[in-house]
Design a protein that fits this description.
Elements lengths: L2 E4 L5 E4 L5 H8 L1 H6 E6 L2 E4 L8 E7 L3 H22 L4 E2 L4 E2 L2 E7 L6 H16 L5 E5 L1 H7 L4 H8 L12 E6 L2 E4 L13 E11 L8 E10 L2 H17 L1 H7 L3 E2 L10 E2 L1 H20 L3 E2 L5 E3 H7 L1 H4 L8 E3 L3 E5 L4 H8 L11 E10 L15 E11 L4 H18 L5 E6 L10 H18 L3 E4 L9 E7 L5 E10 L2 H4 L4 E2 L5 E2 L2 E10 H11 L13 E5 L5 H13 L4 E3 L6 H10 L4 E5 L1 H6 L1 E6 L6 E5 H11 L5
Parallel strand pairs: 1-5, 16-20, 22-23, 29-30, 29-31
Antiparallel strand pairs: 1-2, 3-4, 3-5, 6-8, 7-8, 8-13, 9-10, 10-11, 12-13, 14-15, 17-19, 18-19, 20-21, 21-28, 22-24, 24-25, 25-28, 26-27, 31-32, 32-33
Helix pairs in contact: 3-4, 8-16, 13-14
Length: about 650
């Protein structure tokens, strides 16, 4: 029987039974066929040369699309495994998925990989790619798979797993072969290894099997793959830029924060300049929260475990919480991973009327989460941090307006810090990790969807990624080098008010249940500062800079005048320091530039006589000499004016 395919433009085309996706792509055009790496049929990705099993909605996946790049990277991971097992015959291999901008594969070779190993492995990969070996898909039984991978315990565990994400019971087991090498894989892959035009191995790291510290530690090799050398070179350039911007390096260099080993993993201390940066950000957070009608509250850092049992955190979030502490005649306490149950208790402290709603509470609250050591990453993934948490209690009728307000607040916040490109993820219910009625989940999700659509914000749906108590919107931004960061979160919650028995009295004197909106604008203050540091490469805009101007006296005889300039600038509200070191003027200027202070003011004999200064802005090669001090003060005061 012929099959009918519907193209993305809505047109329908008929092909003989047994037609492959590649043949369909060829019929559309040779350029499309040359760029094709797979096809999609009714939402399922298929190998390019696999006969189409049926008709349906059809599209060609090209190598420069996100789907296509993911397939390239998956195939490159397969080649990496082939190369490693060729060079290390006693090695066992685990998993090798594509990830954002690259791929990895985990191995056990009995020791860490060396840089020389990485060079040999990459050279072997190039040989395999040059041989243009075809990827051949084969479906086998579970018993055959167990026999085939008998010497590879990690593969055996995957085959025996009952998880749907691995090999579900009754599902066929698929493998891909090329030139005698075989890997357990659902696919799809590119037609042959020769389609991998631009592959590069990047680094190695230790990684626990399944991310669990109780499991064996494997050796992970990271790599990247792109559709051509030009795209690869552009990505490697972005990596170089990212390394220069790494907040873990810039923080100590700029005297903002550090990570002393004595504290333990995932914890930072803030130096004076970093403390000022935090204050500026937190002050702006308070200004905006006050403007949008929030009250400020404060809550403790720990509570009885009973609170977390009622909220559901002990059922769904215990792995991310620190163990209990026995206090008060065997009462167990836990440090808090989030602030919401405390704000619920504030709401519950007295009777509420519909006239009290919406009730908006905000807190810069310290929280603690037991992040596994393998995922800790400076300020971006820490164990102790401050959330700019807010919780709104509102009526069902007022929910839409509250959500519109929260999205406006979030976008205002991000604009103020220099982020102009937004998109969103709408995260929905995971049936296995959620509380409450499915219909209410659907209703809450629809409220969030309408909010995004009314704002005209681009979004994608992330199935099953909601919190256990409700769906959420995650707002993503793009930084100065195009990286995507998840920052702000807005969540709708019908369920925690129910678990805590929250009520308000309606206009007709009935007891009603409020709805909660959870929202974090920065998310974590620490993480937000990490993102900002990398976005600006440490050269913060003047309103955010901990030190806005450095005054450089040419010689010690100019120190008194430098102090006069400092007083004038401080009286105008600017943050200024004088370089009192005995070094040369050039060395002082270089240090101010290295520490990325926005302005350097140089003062010498002529400046003392004429009450002027030399002005040099960060990023500019030249200095303006003889600027009248009054003019410089006015200019810098205006430049330092931040968002209000």
């Amino acid at each position: 029987m012929p099959i009918e395919l519907e193209y993305p433009d809505g047109s329908r085309h008929t092909f003989p039974d047994g037609t492959t996706g590649f043949e369909v792509a060829q019929s559309i055009g040779p350029r499309l066929a040359a760029a094709a790496v797979a096809v999609e049929l009714d939402g399922q990705l298929l190998d390019l040369h696999r006969p189409l099993p049926s008709g349906g909605k059809f599209s060609v996946v090209t190598d420069s699309s996100e789907q296509g790049r993911s397939i390239l990277r998956h195939s490159a991971a397969h080649v990496l495994a082939q190369a490693v097992l060729s060079l290390f015959p006693d090695a066992t291999f685990a998993i090798g998925p594509p990830i954002e901008d690259g791929f990895y594969y985990d191995f056990d070779i009995g020791r860490p990989f060396t840089p020389e190993d990485l060079e040999r492995i990459e050279a072997k990969m190039m040989e395999i790619i040059a041989a243009d070996q075809p990827f051949v898909r084969e479906a086998i039984s579970r018993e055959e798979a167990l026999e085939l991978f008998a010497d590879h315990p990690f593969k055996l565990e995957i085959i025996r797993s009952t998880e749907p994400s691995e090999v579900a019971p009754g599902e066929e087991v698929t493998v891909y072969r090329n030139n005698g090498f075989v890997d357990l894989c659902r696919g799809p892959h590119v037609p042959s290894t020769g389609r991998l035009k631009a592959v590069k191995l990047l680094r190695t790291a230790g990684a626990y099997w399944r991310g669990d510290e109780k499991n064996p530690q494997l050796q992970r090799i990271y790599g990247t793959a792109w559709e051509d050398r030009r795209a690869l070179e552009a990505y490697l350039h972005r990596l170089e830029e990212a390394e220069k911007r790494d907040h873990r390096r810039l923080g100590p260099e700029l005297d903002l924060f550090s990570f002393p080993s004595e504290l333990g993993a995932g914890l930072a201390v803030w130096h004076g300049k970093g403390g000022m940066l935090r204050k500026l950000i937190e002050d702006h957070s308070r200004r905006l929260h006050e403007r949008f009608g929030f009250e400020f509250v404060f809550t403790p850092h720990l509570a009885r475990s009973e609170l977390w049992r009622i909220s559901g955190h002990l059922d769904f979030y215990a792995d991310a919480m620190y163990p209990g502490i026995e206090l008060d005649n065997d009462q167990e306490y836990r440090v808090k991973p989030m602030n919401c149950p405390f704000h619920i208790l504030i709401y519950k402290s007295r009777a509420r009327s519909y006239r009290d709603l919406p009730m908006r509470l905000s807190e810069l609250g310290g929280v603690y989460r037991y992040e596994r050591s393998g995922v800790i990453h400076g300020l971006l993934r820490a164990r102790g941090f401050t959330q700019d948490d807010s919780h709104t209690f509102t009526t069902r009728e007022g929910l839409r307006a509250e959500l519109d307000m929260h999205l406006e607040f979030v976008t205002q916040w991000l604009h103020d810090f220099g982020f102009d490109q937004f998109d969103a993820m709408l995260s929905t219910r995971d049936p296995s990790k959620s509380i409450g009625d499915e219909e209410l989940w659907d209703e809450a999700t629809e409220y969030l969807r309408r909010t995004l659509e009314a704002a005209g914000m681009d979004y994608q749906v992330e199935e099953g990624e909601g919190a256990f108590y409700g769906p959420k919107i995650d707002i993503n931004v793009r930084d100065a080098i195009g990286r995507r960061w998840q920052v702000s979160t807005i969540q709708v919650d019908f369920f925690l008010p129910d678990r805590f028995g929250l009520e308000y009295t309606s206009a007709d004197n009935r007891a009603e249940r409020p709805v909660m909106v959870h929202c974090a604008k920065a998310g974590s203050i620490e993480r937000f500062i990490g993102v900002l540091t990398e976005h600006y490469a440490g050269a913060f805009p003047m309103w955010l800079a901990p030190v806005q101007a450095t005054i450089v006296p040419v010689a010690d005889r100019h120190l008194d005048y430098a102090d006069t300039v400092q007083r004038r600038l401080r009286d105008a509200g600017l943050r200024v320091e004088v370089d009192r070191s005995g070094e040369t003027v050039g060395e002082k200027i270089r240090r101010a530039i290295t520490t990325k202070h926005p302005v350097v003011l140089v003062v010498g004999d002529k400046d003392v006589e004429a009450t002027t200064v030399g002005v040099r802005r960060y990023g500019e090669d030249s200095e303006r000499r003889g600027v009248p001090l009054d003019e410089a003060v006015a200019e810098l005061t205006e430049a330092a004016r931040g968002p209000r």
